Amino acid sequence: MKRFLMISIILMMLLAGVTLVFGGGAKEAEKEAKEFIIFHYWTAGGEKEAIDELFKIFKANHPDVEILENPVAGGGGALMLAVLMGNLESGNPPDTFQDHQGNQQKAFIDAGYLESVNDLWEKTNFEARINPVWVKTLKFDGKVYSVPINAHRTNWLWHNIEILKDAGVRPPESYDELLAACKKIKAAKPDIWPLALGTREKVWSTYLYDMCLLTTGGADFYEKANTGRINFKTDPTFRKAMDRYAALIPYIYPFHATKSWDEAGALIKTGEAAMYWMGDWILGYYLAIGMEPEKDFSVSAMPKDIWMGHADTFPLAKGAPHPQLAKDWLEICTTTEGAKNFNLKKGSVTIINDVPPSVYPDPYRQRSAKDLASLRAVIDGYHGGMMTPAFGDDLMDILTQFLTDSDVDSAIKEIAASAERNKLKEACSWFWK
Amino acid sequence: MKDTRFKISSIAILVILAALWLMPVYAMLNTSIKTQEEVANQEYLRFPRKFAIQNYLKAFKALKTGLINSAVITIPATFLCVFLGSMAGYFLTMFEFKPSQLIFFWIVVASFLPYQIVLIPITQLISSLRLLNTYAGLILIYVILNIPISTLITATFFMKMPVALQEAAALDGCKPFTFYIKILVPVSIPGLISAAILVFVQIYNEFLLAISLTRGPKIKPVMPILAELKGSQIAQWNIQMAGAVIVSLFPLAIFIFLSEYFISGMMAGYGKE
Amino acid sequence: MKYNKAYGFIFLTPVVLAVGIIYMMIFWNLVASLTQWQGMKATWQFAGLQNYFDLISLRRFWVNVKNNFLWLFFFIIPTTLLGFILAYLFTNLGRIEKVFRQFFLYPMALAFIVTGTLWSWMYDPSSGLINSLLRAVGFDTTRLGWIANPNGAIFCMIFSAFWQYVGFSLVIYLGAIRGLSYSMIEAANIDGAGHIRILFQIIFPNVGHGTLICTTMLAITTMKVFDLVWIMTGGGPGIKTEVLPYMMYRITYSQHNIGMGASTSIVILILAAAMVIPYSLWALKKWVRE
């Protein structure tokens, strides 16, 4: 017994020694090989296939380069921020990483972590090929730092066709129609919840907030409110928007705290809920769980004359270990081929307008692409980076509390306090320049 | 008579508790063999209509290298932690050294540090040692962060050791290191194993550092890969749960392996007394 | 007689080095907490104790402190107690013990990122396991919201941590109880003492070191609890289930306010040091006696 113990101790010490020696050596060997380092959080199913499409093109151009992807799953990118901050601040930037736009990107720019890619935009005539909203939220003091790859529309209201038909409700296209629909569904089918929601990740509470702002005050008001250009305490439109949010709460699935975004979305499938306010990535999920478009579910845009959503972007990191490769990667993202192949798999639409809407197999993305090219577009409050991340983070707390007590006064008070504490107006002034 | 009744009732209690304890595991196993379509129905209790064993194949394919990496990182790191920590615990409890208590106090306080906050200096440290994306880097940082815990546990177990044990050994001319290896370690196996289990679990389950200090799949341990299996904008709970079953088999095997020592260690302890 | 050899320091060196590095990081942290570091780039601009004043003026901070103390109380005591009782039952069981022990150890083997999800499924009021089972035996579950109930959420979360860590206290107590001599327990048995008396009057006083490790380790876990909160509720609804380490993480990485995040972690360490003092006093007494 004792001998066995001794032997295993010696073996383990050897193992530890060997790994220390070889582990240290491996780094040196890797230095010589050509590599391309990218952080992202698309790790499974269609999203992974999508980024693999880009890797395929990249590999065809650079057969000798090894791609070091560092997928950081968890928290819809919240975890990746921490990982990035650790690596950037300690001087170990990747070549590029997945980011959004607006204030989400500005945080990196202010810290001096990004390099401008104006030349690439000029070379590919990028600005002329995209909706002005992207230029507005990606250009800071005349400089751009990234290339957007896809656009996810988020002002979609998904619904269960059968339930709406049974209740005699038309798919809502405005807030008033939505509230009327909720009332009608609740009256016709008391055991079905009109609106699904999942707040196990708190961020989804802000999506309904965006919707109320947008449908109450229109696009201009929405942009002003999310950048802190209104007086939250006294603005009557803002109060009205919050009142409207509160009016929806009795119709929202009450156990939202236990559901993740996908589990809440599946309530449309099981028939426990009738409608769901969610971005178009849920389409990929619905297809994966065997729901048929236009038979089991459909969608309406709300409001129908505005496109709201956000983009995923790839910025160029300052001090990137392989800047030329990173630029080549960004250039692939600007090409029609790269963008198309990526978005077909991803479930989103391309940023660039030169991909015809007809390439998408489903009617929803065709419409999203068409609307993005022609309508007024605004970006999401939190994920789009309309508001600052710090204010958005507070807002989630306030709204998830609001969802349990429907107390408009205290919610408004807290939102105003948070906007002041986080200097929302000053921080977002770049948007109005 | 009284004892049989006690035995039966305690078995009954244990069975009920064990059933309760296994309920989440049931949810995990059940979900892991469902299709994504069926998972979406969220009937956690209901048995799957058709088995989707391919979930396990998919998960295993993705986790394979991660499992090996985790073994290569976790086993030596745990061993070093317990070995070095118990040596310090031995010194602190059994040597005549006045500041022992003070050192001990500071070691315990250090173990309370939530390491997420020092992610930036940790990354700085590892990259300045040129150990980014190496096994050695991860092992080093895990040992540093977990050594206080193992010192704490082993030292507290050593406090129970009778002083006479060491006195007798010293009279026989036994050197401290020999005493530690030949006498102290064998009699305090349960304490060492308790420390090993905890440290192992901490290291194996960690994933913030595991992502921050690696680049790509070559070195990356299994836990971040498990998180990836679900996807960000696609929800493959079934594959993640299949992965979770696979990933948990390794620590479970370690627990069972250590349990053997646990029991034999106790026998050794009684032999000495 | 104790050893007193200079080369004994070799035993201590690796730990002193490691702990030294940890304290260097804590010092980094302390310095960061005294700066107005906001945003991603380090700005080492001295701000005095401003971050600490800002912190204690937040209502959120005090809610978090309260939640942390709820955790300390409702997590540590039940986990320690059940582990202790189970260990005693196991010592009387003989061979079956080996099988049963795995059932309670298994949760420790599960990834933290998974257990949070599993417990969300357990607590789901409409289709979760608990309510489904209760409904199957005829209970009315319409009012049992579990984690969806704002006031009960934190206790539900604590219970899932309890589930995961009982295995740990069980192992500790098994080790501690086996270290006792059987003759002591047998003597009590012959005296006709009941099991409860043996348990609490004879065994418990003699496994003080086990209790000490257990409570300390669980306190460390509590003061660092992060994954469960993150995955089960994100601290919600509102901040009802948020705890200090999670707030620290969000302030630092989601709100990019590193100065304030660092000061939160210093507060955690100060609270920890306060908890450790009784522990080291006990250890001191013990050492002096020997």
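Residues 59-289 of chain C form a domain with the MetI-like fold fold (CATH 1.10.3720.10).
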